[in-house]
Amino acid sequence: MNSLPNNLKQIALFLERLPGIGQKTANRLAFYFLRLPESDLKEFAKNITFLKTKTKFCNVCMNLTEEETCSICLDKKRDSGVITVVEEVLDILSFETGNIYSGVYHVLHGRIDPLNHIGPEDIYIEKLLTRVKTSKVIEIILATNPDMEGEATAMFIKNQLSGLNKLNGKGFKITRLAYGLPIGGSLEYADYMTLRKAIEGRNSY
Ligand SMILES: [Zn+2]
């Protein structure tokens, strides 16, 4: 590594910090960058530079967007009365890839995880409850991951939503993704057929 020019070495060292990238792959990618046309690199550098300042949370669902409201929430063809609650933005991509779902989303940006000191107030549950209170909702699909923390998060939200249902006479359905998803797995890695099975077979929760 010391034999590399400094700029190339800094890029390789940065790439090595990315998840799933070892030193060899990082070096290979850095060399790949070197071979790209300068216009591609400038475009990439510009996108990286503005990544933090341009990207913000959708004011409805907390998905990532460059506008006030994300394209999914703005899409009139989607059913805004069906809300799938997911832990992370990447989970939305899993649903969207297979074209298996036409409702909207709510992103929690985490899950309840007492061992790591993450409580309900640290993720966007309150925002979901406010949204449910102030809009017309037919069904909430709880699509947190099927592991211990995901289940605990789904249970907590279900209890809060059931309270709302009783108090406000809202009468929406609360469902949870069903079979097909491996226990202890992560939605991010589920293929769309598995997700389709899970969403078709969802149960009252
Ligand atoms: Zn949105």
Description:
The protein has 205 residues and is α/β, with parallel strands linked by helices. The protein has two domains: 6-54, Helicase, Ruva Protein, domain 3 (Orthogonal Bundle), CATH 1.10.8.420; 70-204, Dna Topoisomerase Vi A Subunit, Chain: A, domain 2 (3-Layer(aba) Sandwich), CATH 3.40.1360. The protein is 46% helix and 13% strand. It has helices at 6-16, 23-35, 38-54, 71-74, 89-97, 125-134, 148-168, 192-200, and strands at 56-57, 64-65, 79-86, 103-107, 139-142, 173-176, 203-204. The strands form two sheets. A five-stranded mixed β-sheet has the order 4-3-5-6-7. Strands 1-2 form a two-stranded antiparallel sheet. The longest helix has 21 residues, at 148-168. The radius of gyration is 20 Å and the shape is elongated. The structure holds zinc ion (ZN). GO terms for molecular function: DNA binding; zinc ion binding. Keywords: DNA damage, DNA recombination, DNA repair, Metal-binding, Zinc, Zinc-finger. InterPro entries: DNA_Rcmb_RecR, Rcmb_RecR, Rcmb_RecR_Znf, TOPRIM_dom, TOPRIM_RecR. This is Recombination protein RecR. A zinc finger (C4-type) spans 58-73.
